[in-house]
């Protein structure tokens, strides 16, 4: 008994230490995000109303979901260039199924299924054939985007008003969905598949030797990431009340930007999901703050670049400072 | 304040709202208190293309004029960088900032419907021009007729060739609604004249280089070409450059008001015809918004007739080239009197 409790204490200590180290990496970003949120609330006090908060979380949700989907792959040492096309496909499937006898539940099921299948196939090709994810998903983006265009050659379709009003109305349901997604991620991260994600990303060979089913972990990650991305498309369809076969294009780059901004590295195993999450929040709130500051479009391009570089560079500079200070002390 | 006085204030506000709403019920969407000078928002989908830059310039100039008339206080400009989701976000911010009117060149025919309906429900005037949305939940749409464009271009070509000849048809990218609509407009005219033979059709970006390349390839296979029915300005410039380089005789060519095309047309002295998607659609949208906000009735669809450039008035366009960028579009002159006339149509 006593040894067990000792190991439990040690385990808890280790968990806390790991979490602390991880949080340190995103401390700078957190401050930047909080500053921007504060600035936004000052410029637009309506943010603090029920409706204002609802509208903001609706704007944020699709990027948050795609950023998480992207981070999941990047943590595992992969990447996806087909995020945008999958968002479009999800939106198109949602807008063409929910009005049919399949109904809302059927439509939602179809979107999840399509996302899972697309992700699993991409993952299987990448992992089993040992092909670079960047090539497979780039090719995948053309195929998936093409299928979206086949299903809906021109913007159209429809989403029941009840669904749109529920998800993208005046109550913060979108924020609730975000919290639910985070909770699900926490659960997943505690399963062997979730734990294996970091291990497979950081050191695949080591992970394999210590008994992690690396291939299964990776394919599962691609499948879940695909489902998450397609769900972002479902939400976009609900938000816009229709389907547009190219609506998602910008999400590919933005999801990568959000993840990298949040400290997720291209090498795999580095960074945190919460970092990617904060990154997506910064990218979203930044656009609104620039609007309320009244910056002209040209200045917005420059400001956007500066903010992104700054958010990545500042924590790095701070870290080096702290490192140097630490060395001087010791 | 006591509870009673709150109530009284509330009633007074309601009465005030009802009063102003009653006075301004003319145009769709506009409700609540809107008092000049107004705040306008211009939700641009993408600010980088030259056409868009010139369009934004016409809006800014119109707003400057309206400022001097005491009708506009501020113009907010956003750039969605080609992303319809960002455009939704920016329109939402304009609603949050309580602008009086929003001008939109849409990045998607459907995606903006709900946010536009939101703006409309909040009493904001919404004017959509150039690239249109498929909802009618807004104050007014402002545009030319792309089908008419194709039809008139084809008619001119048929007349030039006396109803008989071999032509090449140059289109914009496949699957783009503007390109499709223009081609569709030309179809019945070409069908009605079976002696007009289409040698080949091209689909390229609306840029000079790809059009020139496509034309160069076609020239090798087609020793005899009587006309070039081009449905976009930069395409015509590419066609002329290709033919000129190979020493081919220049034939009747249609096109758009792209500066390089107009200059080549003048310099080479060919038979030409052009129309345009006038950049001042943006200025007209701003003007329409302010008219509607002042309580005037505006048509739900402001149809703008296509301005035509032909051999008779080409010189007046060439004379103004110095006022336009080298890769820009020389649009027809406009003023508020003309706008006012366009708004009286039903």
Automatic annotation (TrEMBL), chain A:
Topology versus the membrane: Multi-pass membrane protein
Coiled coil, from the record: none
InterPro entries tied to this protein: ABC_transp_permease
Protein's cellular compartments: Cell membrane
Keywords on record: Cell inner membrane, Cell membrane, Membrane, Transmembrane, Transmembrane helix, Transport
One Gene Ontology molecular-function label: transmembrane transporter activity
GO CC terms of this entry: plasma membrane
Residue ranges of the TM segments: 26-50, 71-96, 102-121, 133-153, 173-200, 212-235, 247-268, 275-295
Pfam families registered for this protein in UniProt: BPD_transp_2
Function: Part of the ABC transporter complex LsrABCD involved in autoinducer 2 (AI-2) import. Probably responsible for the translocation of the substrate across the membrane.
Subunit: The complex is composed of two ATP-binding proteins (LsrA), two transmembrane proteins (LsrC and LsrD) and a solute-binding protein (LsrB).
Record protein name field: Autoinducer 2 import system permease protein LsrD
Lineage start: Bacteria, Pseudomonadati, Pseudomonadota, Alphaproteobacteria, Hyphomicrobiales
UniProtKB/TrEMBL annotation, chain B:
GO function term, MF aspect, one: carbohydrate binding
InterPro entries: Peripla_BP_I (IPR028082), SBP_2_dom (IPR025997)
One cellular-component annotation, GO: cell envelope
Keyword Signal (UniProt): yes
Compartment list: Cell envelope
Keyword annotations: Signal
Domain of life, per lineage: Bacteria
Periplasmic binding protein domain location: 47-297
A family per Pfam: Peripla_BP_4
Signal peptide (residue range): 1-23
PANTHER family: D-ALLOSE-BINDING PERIPLASMIC PROTEIN-RELATED (PTHR46847), GALACTOFURANOSE-BINDING PROTEIN YTFQ (PTHR46847:SF3)
Family designation: Belongs to the bacterial solute-binding protein 2 family.
Protein name: ABC transporter substrate-binding protein
Species the sequence originates in: Lichenifustis flavocetrariae
């Amino acid at each position: 008994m006593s040894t067990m409790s000792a190991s439990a204490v040690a385990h808890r200590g280790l968990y806390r230490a790991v979490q602390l180290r991880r949080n340190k990496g995103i401390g700078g970003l957190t401050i930047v995000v909080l500053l921007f949120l504060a600035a936004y609330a000052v410029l637009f006090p309506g943010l603090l109303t029920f409706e204002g908060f609802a509208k903001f979380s609706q704007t944020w949700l699709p990027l948050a979901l795609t950023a998480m989907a992207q981070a999941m792959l990047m943590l595992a040492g992969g990447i996806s260039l087909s995020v945008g096309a999958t968002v479009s496909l999800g939106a198109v499937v949602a807008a063409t199924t929910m009005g049919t006898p399949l109904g809302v539940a059927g439509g939602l099921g179809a979107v999840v299924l399509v996302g899972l299948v697309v992700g699993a196939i991409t993952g299987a090709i990448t992992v089993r054939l040992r092909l670079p994810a960047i090539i497979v998903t780039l090719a995948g983006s053309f195929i998936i985007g093409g299928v979206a265009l086949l299903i809906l050659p021109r913007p159209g379709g429809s989403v029941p008003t009840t669904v749109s009003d529920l998800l993208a109305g005046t109550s913060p349901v979108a924020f609730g969905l975000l919290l639910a997604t985070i909770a699900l991620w926490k659960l997943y991260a505690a399963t062997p598949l979730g734990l294996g994600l970091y291990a497979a990303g950081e050191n695949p060979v080591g992970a394999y030797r210590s008994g992690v089913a690396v291939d299964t972990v990776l394919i599962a990650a691609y499948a879940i990431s695909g489902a998450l991305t397609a769900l972002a498309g479902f939400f976009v369809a609900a938000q816009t009340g229709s389907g547009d076969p190219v609506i998602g294009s910008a999400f590919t780059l933005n999801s990568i930007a959000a993840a990298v901004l949040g400290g997720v590295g291209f090498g795999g195993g580095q960074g945190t999901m919460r970092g990617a999450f904060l990154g997506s929040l910064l990218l979203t709130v930044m656009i609104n703050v620039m609007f309320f500051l009244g910056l002209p479009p040209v200045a917005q391009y420059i400001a956007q670049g500066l903010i992104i570089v700054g958010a990545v560079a500042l924590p790095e500079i701070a870290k080096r400072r702290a490192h140097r200070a630490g060395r001087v002390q010791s | 304040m006591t509870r009673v006085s709150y109530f009284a204030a509330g009633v007074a506000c309601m009465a005030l709202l009802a009063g102003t709403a009653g006075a301004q019920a003319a145009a769709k969407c506009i409700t609540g208190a809107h008092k000049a000078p107004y705040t306008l928002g211009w939700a641009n989908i993408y600010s980088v293309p030259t056409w868009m830059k010139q369009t934004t310039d016409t809006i800014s100039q119109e707003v400057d004029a309206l400022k001097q008339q005491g009708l506009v206080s501020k113009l907010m400009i956003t750039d969605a960088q080609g992303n319809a989701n960002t455009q939704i976000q920016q329109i939402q911010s304009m609603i949050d900032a309580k602008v009086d009117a929003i001008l939109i060149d849409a990045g998607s025919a459907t995606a903006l419907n709900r946010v536009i309906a939101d703006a409309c429900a909040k009493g904001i005037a919404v004017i959509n021009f150039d690239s249109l949305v498929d909802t009618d939940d807004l104050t007014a749409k402002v545009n030319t007729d792309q089908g008419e464009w194709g039809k008139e271009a084809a008619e001119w070509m048929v007349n030039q060739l006396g109803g008989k000849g071999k032509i090449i048809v140059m289109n914009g990218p496949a699957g783009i609604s503007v390109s499709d609509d223009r081609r569709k407009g030309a179809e019945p005219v070409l069908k009605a004249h079976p002696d007009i033979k289409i040698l080949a059709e091209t689909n390229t970006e609306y840029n000079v280089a790809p059009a020139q390349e496509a034309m160069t390839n076609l020239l090798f296979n087609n020793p005899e070409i009587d006309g070039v029915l081009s449905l976009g300005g930069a395409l015509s410039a590419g066609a002329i450059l290709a033919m000129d380089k190979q020493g081919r005789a220049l034939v009747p060519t249609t096109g758009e008001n792209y500066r390089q095309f107009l200059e080549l047309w003048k310099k080479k002295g060919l038979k030409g015809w052009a129309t345009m998607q006038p950049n001042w659609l943006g200025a007209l949208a701003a003007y329409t918004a302010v008219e509607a906000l002042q309580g005037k009735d505006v048509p739900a669809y402001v149809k703008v007739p296509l301005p035509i450039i032909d051999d008779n008035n080409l010189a007046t366009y060439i004379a103004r080239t110095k006022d336009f960028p080298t890769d820009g579009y020389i649009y027809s002159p406009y003023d508020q009197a003309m706008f006012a006339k366009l708004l009286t149509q039903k």
